[in-house]
Design goal:
Elements: E1 2-5, H1 11-24, E2 31-34, H2 43-56
Length: 65
């Protein structure tokens, strides 16, 4: 399972989250999780992935398409 920040939130859902934030006095992050199968990568592929992660400043995860 892989979770990421929810980016496709409808207005009603967004309003519900914002109302809760206001009530709690806290900022909230919304995440959605997806059933994904991780991909097996070779040492060379892993090295290339790490190089690009470092360059971009983000994490990459290889998954089966």
């Amino acid at each position: 399972m892989l979770c990421s920040i929810a980016t496709n939130i409808d207005e009603s859902t967004l309003q519900t989250i914002q109302d809760l934030e206001k009530d709690l006095g806290k900022s909230l992050l919304a995440f959605k999780c997806h059933e994904l199968k991780p991909s097996i990568v070779s040492d060379g592929e892993l090295s290339r992935i790490k190089e690009v992660e470092k360059k971009l400043g983000m994490s990459l995860v290889a998954v089966e398409a």
